[in-house]
Amino acid sequence: MKFAALFLFTAFLIGNSSVSQAADYRLHSDAKPVVAPPLPISGSNLHGIIEPGLPEEPCFSYRYVEAGYVYRNSDPSWGGNGNGGGVKFSYDFLGPIYALGSYSTGSGDYDSKFSDADFGLGMYHQLFECFQLTFEAGGAWQKREIDGYSESDFGYFVGPGLRTRLKKGVEVFGNAYYSEVGETDGLVYGGGFVIDLMPNLFLNLSAQIDDNSETFLAGIRYVY
Questions:
Q1: Which of 15, 109, 112, 208 is deepest in the core (most CB within 10 A)?
Q2: In the predicted model, what is the mean pLDDT of residues 12-27?
Q3: Which segments of 95-130 are extended strands (E)?
Q4: What is the mean pLDDT of residues 52-62?
Q5: Residues 149 and 197 in one domain
């Protein structure tokens, strides 16, 4: 027991002495500290140190214009089958808030013509990386002409949606709106794919389905 205590006391003294000697050497030694020479900085090294990294490319854009071909399959009372063209846009102007709108027109069976337009506001919220919840609402207008009879109505739409990215360059989206235009009301479901063709240019393949019609769109989207 005494030997163990003596061993510990001796070890303490040796350690304390070593620390004291090292401190005394640092205080009184004339030796100059060794400084490693600076590393040569080439242009490539300087580039990595000074210039910040490139900003990460956002998953989605809410600033675009689009034009495309529209095909519609509807009840005979709504003009039957028809086709035409359409345009749409989106523009973010205040953080996650954006304006949106679309217009389409065409002709179909029974000497029919159709026109639809909407305009509103939307807001998005990031749930996960490249996975966003959207909420959109606005006014809607539609016009139908069948065998010389014309009717137009105004209304509104409101509902949520989702946007996500399957992989880089391929987006999938979906919406579910409640819509009331004239005497017609009910749920309207939409969805589709947005495929990257080249920088700022995308292919949009989408569909919209309600109780009276099915509308399909193939369009080119320009993002700015």
A1: 112
A2: 41
A3: 97-108, 112-128
A4: 72
A5: yes
